[in-house]
Amino acid sequence: MRLKEVLEGKVRLKVPDVEKPEEGEVFYNPVMSYDRNISVGVLKLLKNVLNKPEDKLTVLDALSATGVRALRYKKEVGVNSWANDVNPKSVDLIKENAALNKIKIKVTREDANIILRKNKFDYVDIDPFGSPVPFLDSTAKSFLREGFLSITATDTAPLCGTYPKVSLRRYGIESFKSDYYNELGIRILISEVIKTFAKYEKVFIPQLSYSRRHYFRVYGKVETGVKKVNNFLEKFGFVSHCFNCGWRDLGLKETCPMCGAKTKFTNVYLGDIQNKSFLKDLLIVLDEMGFEKEKKLIEIIKNEASVPFYFDTHYIAEKTGKAIRKIDDFIKKLKENGFSATKTHFCPTAVKTDAKFSDVVEIF
Ligand code: SAH
Predict the structure, then answer these.
(1) Is 247 strand, coil or helix?
(2) Which of 26, 162, 290, 364 has a 20 to 30 A CA-CA distance from 33?
């Protein structure tokens, strides 16, 4: 395997010398350094969130590829890192990269599920190709009582409603393709994590959730206790959508109250997907590390209204036959009418607001 050396964060890495990441015998995508920078920021907050000094925190990078996450977490945060990958070439490269940086981390070649079943961690990073679903049960078992978890999902097409039956099979929830597809998709992913963890009397409390390019990334705190679990399961509810006139609302309505057409509906987690005070702390850390681009994303997310789901103004324009409006003007108008309204990182032409569909259409 031909290698080249790159610098990411504070670690030097040997990575496959290929044009496209998927061509390498070991996977490395330089573009994803953006997300890894955010992860490093999150890891820096763990000592406060979990009340444990960094050198007592054990972190698993379960699908490690080049070892980049595990190495950065060790070098830039100071936690005890464990890198695992099932690919033997990957494991050789992780060891080479650890030696290159003179960093001591634990390295194993195993199915991630085996490592997760046999050990306990404070923080687990599940960053696979495709869906994280095959790893969720064993991840739930890998926390003693408290912990922190980050998950990537790149199978956004089923989650966002392009393949509703795949979403039903994989996540137990049938998606539909709405104008707020990114938020519905990420909520379906979070729903599945919450329901899986609930089986083990654990709760996954979302702290930061975002969609970017073609993937979702979700961070959450893990806690134990039946009361907490029950409380979270109460945050599930229906969203109903009319594909004829565009009406949508929380709650179950089989026929559209605006036009009478049959709706589509699905049951998902409707609670908070961000923890604003966590994001405030994250912004401080990202600022200290000089991660300006990453800060911008977190800033937008921190200011987003918490209410599910957003309205895409282009969709509203199409459904009402009206001209497209400038998003800033529309937000201003909603606010003048007494509603909360913000932009959302999920979609540049969309608004998050507590206004109902009929108000949104009227003000539009
Ligand atoms: N986290 C890496 C990218 C990981 S790509 C980064 O930030 O760069 C996904 C990796 O998962 C691949 O290296 C693949 O070999 C590994 N993998 C796939 N299935 C696995 C399994 N069941 N157990 C452990 N590793 C697995």
Answers:
(1) coil
(2) 162
* CB distance 72 to ligand 1 below 6 Å: no
> Quick check: CB of 116 below 6 Å from ligand 1?
no
Indicate the residue among 262, 284, 306 that finishes a domain. Answer: 284
Provide mean pLDDT across the span 6-26. Answer: 96
Range of the domain at 296: 285-363
CATH number at residue 312: 3.30.56.70
Q: Indicate whether residue 126 lines ligand 1 (CB < 6 A).
A: no
- 292 Cα: distance to centroid of ligand 1 (angstroms): 28
pTM greater than the 0.90 cutoff: yes
Instruction: Give the C-alpha distances (Å, rounded to integers) separating 303 from 20, 165, 297, 298, 306.
Output: 35, 34, 10, 9, 9
- Testing ligand 1's pocket by substitution, the residue of 1, 34, 64 carrying the most ligand atoms inside 8 A of its CB is 64
Helices (H), the chain: 33-49, 68-72, 88-100, 112-118, 136-141, 156-159, 164-171, 181-198, 226-233, 276-289, 292-303, 313-320, 327-336, 357-363
List 311's β-bridge partners, or say none: 351
User: Which has more confidence, 1 or 53?
Assistant: 53
**Are 205 and 264 within one domain?**
yes
Which of 266, 284, 302 is the C-terminal boundary of a domain? 284
